[in-house]
């Protein structure tokens, strides 16, 4: 396999590219969020992932500004929030575009005037196919206007992706870790050239997962932590993991992934942990989401 480094990028079918490791910010609010994002960027992370749903875009933007890292050196991904389940709200593409623009303004807390997003995703396939088409048209409009570089989706299954009109998404962000490998969706995205971002790559530090004998054995073999094994597995599978952390020590530890490699036997054993839908920890199963 080719060498993976912190500077490695995955190339999109659009011609764009995204860092192979991101910093997740879900749940990090107020000063905690600001400090975590600032520290992550100062110690070398190149990408920050957030979402309108997290209600922390302003804190993420402040952390970015405080880091002192130039905007052009940072890859910012956020997610547009569709209406809630069962809602009868039907937005126009222009309204979606305008809501997306609000994210850009919240994230630019530096006053730099460099108001753009590297990537914006639709966070969820609700409420139905008609809604998805309209929402996708709104993000496509933002991309056409130039202040969103690439657009993609999150939690979309194969049917959702097949029904989506052009342009082809650059990214699908889904739950991915050894216990939840979503192989049908992964295979489809790979065939289509859709990059895969992995949320919950550390299974929310679930005790039962972190004490799994297979993972513990592999961690001991490489003299690494379980988190390192899980993130390295994700990288070697070709995914883009976006681990979340708040403490400086954990933020730094989560990027210490480039001086060891899992061998074929390690990868085979980790692949064997897949539990399908039963392995999910997020509660989001794309197979049961709105058609």
From TrEMBL:
Gene Ontology MF annotations: oxidoreductase activity
UniProt cross-references to InterPro entries, sorted A to Z: AKR (IPR020471), Aldo/ket_reductase_CS (IPR018170), NAD(P)_OxRdtase_dom_sf (IPR036812), NADP_OxRdtase_dom (IPR023210)
Pfam families in UniProt: Aldo_ket_red
Gene3D superfamilies to which the protein is assigned, alphabetical: NADP-dependent oxidoreductase domain
Domain NADP-dependent oxidoreductase: 23-274
Ligand binding (substrate): 123
Residues the UniProt record annotates as site (Lowers pKa of active site Tyr): 79
Catalytic-site annotation from UniProt: 54
Protein name as catalogued: NADP-dependent oxidoreductase domain-containing protein
Organism: Kwoniella newhampshirensis
């Amino acid at each position: 396999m080719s060498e993976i480094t912190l500077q490695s990028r995955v190339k999109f079918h659009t011609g764009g590219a995204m860092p192979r490791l991101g910093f997740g910010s879900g749940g990090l609010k107020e000063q905690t969020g600001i400090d975590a994002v600032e520290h992550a960027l100062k110690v070398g992370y190149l990408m920050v992932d957030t979402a309108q749903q997290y209600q922390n875009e302003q804190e993420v933007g402040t952390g970015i500004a405080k880091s002192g890292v130039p905007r052009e050196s940072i890859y910012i991904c956020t997610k547009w929030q569709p209406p809630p389940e069962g809602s009868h709200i039907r937005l126009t593409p222009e309204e979606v575009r305008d809501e997306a623009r609000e994210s850009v303004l919240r994230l630019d807390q530096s006053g730099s005037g460099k108001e753009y997003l590297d990537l914006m995703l639709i966070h969820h396939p609700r409420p139905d196919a008609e809604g998805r088409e309209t929402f996708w048209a709104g993000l496509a409009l933002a991309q056409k206007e130039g202040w969103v570089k690439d657009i993609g989706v999150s939690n979309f299954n194969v049917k959702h992706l097949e029904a989506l009109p052009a342009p082809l998404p650059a990214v699908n962000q889904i739950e991915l870790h050894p216990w939840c490998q979503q192989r049908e969706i992964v295979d489809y995205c790979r065939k289509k050239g859709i990059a895969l971002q992995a949320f919950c790559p550390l299974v929310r530090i679930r005790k039962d997962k972190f004490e799994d004998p297979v993972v513990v054995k592999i961690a001991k073999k490489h003299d690494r932590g379980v988190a390192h094994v899980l993130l390295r597995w994700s990288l070697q599978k070709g995914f883009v993991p976006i681990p979340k952390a708040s403490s400086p020590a954990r933020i730094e530890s989560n990027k210490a992934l480039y001086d060891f490699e899992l061998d074929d036997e390690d990868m085979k054993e980790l692949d064997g942990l897949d539990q399908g839908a039963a392995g999910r920890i997020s509660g989001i199963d794309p197979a049961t989401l709105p058609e």
